[in-house]
Amino acid sequence: MISVAEALERLFGLVVPTGTQTVPLTEAAGRYMTAPAIADRTQPPFAASAMDGYAFRDADLGANARLRVIGEAAAGAGSDKSVGPGEAIRIFTGAPLPQGADRVVIQEDVTRDGDMISIIGDVGNSFHIRPMGADFKAGHQLDPRVLTPGDVALLAAMNLPRVTVARKPVIALLPTGNELVQPGEDPGPDQVIASNSYGLHALLAAAGAAPRMLPVARDTTASLEMAIGLAEGADLLVTIGGASVGDHDLVGAVTERLGMDRAFYKVAMRPGKPLIAGRIGGMAMVGLPGNPVSAMVCGTIFLRPMVRAYLGQPAAPEPRQHAPLAAPLPANGPREHYMRATLTPEGLCADKRQDSALLSVLAAAGALIVRPPGDAAREIGEEVPFIRL
Ligand SMILES: Nc1nc2c(c(=O)[nH]1)N[C@H]1C(S)=C(S)[C@@H](COP(=O)(O)OP(=O)(O)OC[C@H]3O[C@@H](n4cnc5c(N)ncnc54)[C@H](O)[C@@H]3O)O[C@H]1N2
Ligand code: MOO
């Protein structure tokens, strides 16, 4: 059995980055932008009023200043008049500041009588002007990143209607097992619902992949071979179940028959030990264990980093954080243990029930405490590493 770190290295070795495509901004959120984006204009492109009020010369501000209103400037329709001594221009938020003016007073601080305004009270220190280029200047660069809604707004303001992003890796998800029916179907007395495929679909989509759900394969060579054939064209095939040593666990044997170049089988981790990986046809292939929590933990520890590598991001494990324990932990065995835990204000609290079949425990957990092989018993208050779910 190899270590989790070694398994992840070998999995990165199976990844062929997907390359890039250009998408409109409406499809850009959540995508990985692969190259810097460069603004082709300055924002604001002119000094602009930040408020509705009057533009005037700061030098005119004095006790009981009275100014003549000589024109109007609105957003999208600036004034071509120049503001001279004793003059003001009615101005609205977003309008270009007229020539000659260097200050804006908000309309609440003004009384108006016909063409004349009086500035009343203390107007404070704010000039209510957004200088040209205050947000960014032409040539401003947004570096490669997973695009947030805020990034998309910035790219639009930079006048970039399209953006170059990594193509989403297509990941074919293949649940296997005679006992499985789809959610919403009527299970027979010995049957259970295929759940892992849906959890993994959600996990992979959120990580930036394009998961493709295949029909459940039965535990026969013919059914598995046919289903694996349906995955053709995917970047990665992920099988679920049938990875262990039972008489009906055929994924290893069938993939070998199909000529899989195996990268490894079995990882010293808990849950998730019977993990298989390699290359088959033009695809990478990862065979996840069927136990529901095992499949989701392997998805978190291995598939999420793999998706990032497919997208061209640095090959790195899931980020770890540290927090104190709110409850003690027993000594760990020889496998790296990913314990389902909640993160409370007092610290991390591992669930008493760590059976890898308990999805209700996983769903309630916000964290996986990472226990190295052979880790000693831990007391309340000790800092331990964890991965956020
Ligand atoms: N003699 C041994 N038995 C087992 C070992 C071992 O080392 N020696 N390892 C155990 C471990 S650890 C795991 S994990 C499981 C993995 O088994 P498989 O990958 O072969 O998975 P299955 O046997 O097909 O299924 C296990 C379990 O999970 C349920 N399952 C499967 N697929 C789904 C799905 N898509 N959605 C929901 N539930 C699923 C299945 O019904 C079984 O209950 O092997 C242990 N055995
Ligand atoms: O690895 Mo199994 O995943 O311990 O339940």
TrEMBL record:
Entry EC number(s): 2.10.1.1
One GO CC annotation: cytosol
Swiss-Prot/TrEMBL GO biological process terms: Mo-molybdopterin cofactor biosynthetic process
Cofactors (names): Mg(2+)
Gene Ontology molecular function: metal ion binding; molybdopterin molybdotransferase activity
Presence of the UniProt keyword Lipoprotein in the record: no
UniProt keyword Glycosyltransferase present: no
InterPro entries: MoaB/Mog-like_dom_sf, MoaB/Mog_dom, MoeA-like, MoeA_C_domain_IV, MoeA_C_domain_IV_sf, MoeA_linker/N, MoeA_linker/N_sf
Keywords for the protein's UniProt record, in alphabetical order: Magnesium, Metal-binding, Molybdenum, Molybdenum cofactor biosynthesis, Transferase
Pfam families to which the protein is assigned, alphabetical: MoCF_biosynth, MoeA_C, MoeA_N
Domain MoaB/Mog as annotated: residue spans: 172-309
Catalytic activity line of the entry: adenylyl-molybdopterin + molybdate = Mo-molybdopterin + AMP + H(+)
Metabolic or biological pathway, per its Swiss-Prot or TrEMBL entry: Cofactor biosynthesis; molybdopterin biosynthesis
Task performed by this protein: Catalyzes the insertion of molybdate into adenylated molybdopterin with the concomitant release of AMP.
Homology family: Belongs to the MoeA family.
Protein name: Molybdopterin molybdenumtransferase
Record gene name: moeA
